[in-house]
Design goal:
Helix 1 runs parallel beside helix 4, helix 1 runs parallel beside helix 10 and helix 10 packs antiparallel against helix 11. The protein is globular. By secondary structure, the chain is of the alpha/beta class.
Length: 403
């Protein structure tokens, strides 16, 4: 049965959903509305892993081949602290420029008959005439905000400040770098996404941010300071900013967004409009595309719209639980960096890789490191670690909710 779908937001989630719905039924009437001009996307590069690429190939091989061809790859992770560098091999990771990803998905959507309209803003006071309206307009979704009570929206801001930058330094591995200043530690995550560009996310505690004067610095002055702090990591390359409309650099506090329900009438949330996970686990784009896969599948398998939307919400909320837990603990690891930064480098780097663990915050770092090394050799300890971590986490969470 042909349906009319209006998708508000031309990011990866909305575009990919339109592709999948057209694959299911070419007679569907689908329009994607994006308020910004074409090619004006924010951000630099996005990361993903082999599992997502395999799912993209399964759902739409044509766009998957284009995404694969436009991506860079790495399999190593590098960490730098106090002049020491360690490098470890791991799972293969991928980076692609956000602008290039959107080009690929928009071209594929148009090829399949989707109308992709830029400079087209949908006002939240009056929903478009459609069988289904998809709010894929990001963490600050105007459609979700208009119905925030119905969705049960909650937003929690993180403690640390961060800024999303580009750089002409091309990282050949996923790189973490920690620099000590008179005002505390500041660190960055860097990864390549093209032949001549990388993403560089810089983060620090609020007292470091103000102590260094980053709260008062203009964009040029702030970038120069960061380039000096990370001169060894960047090999002298420059950082590239994206100032806001008033010329101020875009330092932010990460906002963790949740919603009690993801659908209201014929309006459904997708991607960052429905949920966010801390950038330190590099899962935002993956989760948005997986939302699109799940929603398209629910609409294909169920003719009744309310049941389809309920199934989509139920399935995705369940799938998100371990990811959200990992993101929460990863963010807390960085917010509690002084707990780990004084360890011997090999221990600190090992616990950086374990930052998603629900057990780590509740065990002395030296002891956790020894237990983790032992667990790598003994199956009994591995099972104990897997059993104990979630139970401690649930107990702590229950106490915090009851207080």
């Amino acid at each position: 049965m042909s349906v009319k779908v209006v998708c508000v937001g031309g990011g990866p989630a909305g575009l990919y959903l339109s592709i999948l719905l057209k694959r299911q039924d070419p007679t569907h009437d689908i329009t994607v509305h994006e308020r910004d001009p074409e090619g004006s996307t924010y951000g630099w590069g996005v990361t993903y892993w082999r599992g997502l690429l395999d799912r993209l190939h399964a759902h739409d091989p044509e766009s998957a081949l284009a995404v694969d061809a436009a991506s860079v790859r790495w399999s190593d992770g590098t960490a730098q602290v106090r002049g020491l560098t360690t490098r470890h091999s791991g799972d293969q990771g991928f980076g692609i420029g956000r602008h290039r990803l959107l080009e690929i998905l928009a071209a594929r959507a148009r090829e399949m008959g989707v109308r992709v309209e830029h400079r087209s803003e949908i006002t939240p006071d009056r929903l478009p005439d459609a069988d289904l309206v998809v709010a894929a307009d990001g963490v600050r979704s105007a459609l979700r905000t208009r119905h925030a009570d119905a969705f049960g929206t909650e937003v929690r801001s993180g403690r640390n400040h961060y800024i999303w930058l580009g750089t002409t330094k091309v990282f050949d591995s996923f790189t973490f770098a920690f620099e000590e200043t008179p005002h505390g530690w500041i660190w960055c995550y860097g990864y390549g996404f093209g032949a001549d560009r990388s993403t560089c996310v810089v983060e620090c505690a609020p007292e470091t941010w103000t102590g260094l004067g980053l709260d008062r610095a203009g964009e040029e002055e702030g970038l120069e300071l960061l380039e000096k702090l990370f001169v060894d990591t960047l090999d002298g390359h420059r950082l590239i900013g994206r100032s806001s409309a008033d010329g101020a650099p875009q330092w932010l506090n990460f906002r963790t967004l949740t919603n009690r329900t993801w659908h209201h009438g014929n309006l459904v949330l997708l991607g960052d409009a429905a949920h966010t996970t801390h950038y330190s686990i590099g899962a935002g784009t993956t989760l948005a595309l997986e939302d699109a896969m799940a929603l398209a599948g629910a609409l294909r398998d169920r003719r009744d719209l309310p049941r389809a939307l309920a199934a989509y919400e139920r399935d995705r909320k369940q799938a998100l639980l371990p990811v959200q837990s990992a993101a929460r603990y990863s963010a807390q690891w960085y917010e509690n960096l002084p707990r780990y930064i004084g360890l011997p480098p090999e221990q600190m780097f090992a616990l950086l890789g374990q930052r998603h663990s629900p057990l780590l915050p509740h065990v002395p770092p030296h002891l956790y490191y020894r237990l983790d090394r032992a667990a790598g050799r003994l199956e009994t300890l591995r099972r104990l670690k897997r059993w104990l971590g979630p139970r401690i986490a649930r107990t702590v969470q229950g106490r915090s909710l009851g207080s």
